[in-house]
From TrEMBL:
The keyword Nucleus does not apply. It comes from the Bacteria. This is Dienelactone hydrolase family protein. PANTHER family: DIENELACTONE HYDROLASE DOMAIN-CONTAINING PROTEIN, DIENELACTONE HYDROLASE DOMAIN-CONTAINING PROTEIN-RELATED. The keyword Cell wall biogenesis/degradation does not apply. GO terms for molecular function: hydrolase activity. Residues 29-71 form the Dienelactone hydrolase domain. It holds the Pfam family DLH. Keywords: Hydrolase.
């Protein structure tokens, strides 16, 4: 577990079967070694602050977390 989390986020564009989509990638910039990744999917109403906060919490625990925006 990271002791001093320096969580960073970045918009990532990706292609899913020809459909252009975006998501948010969260990671602790203080961690330099490899770490596990987690995909966070939002509820039916879209990518909101709740999903983003969960991804940020995972990043503080030492994961790389990607919030996929299923609606683009």
């Amino acid at each position: 577990m990271a002791t001093q989390a320096a969580v960073t986020s970045k918009v990532i564009e990706y292609d899913a079967s020809g459909t252009k989509s975006k998501g948010l990638l969260f990671w602790d910039d203080a961690v330099k070694e490899k770490r596990p990744g987690v995909i966070v999917f939002h509820e039916w109403w879209g990518l909101n602050d709740y999903a983003k906060k969960r991804a940020e919490m995972l990043a503080k625990e030492g994961y790389v977390a990607f919030c996929a925006d299923m609606y683009g």
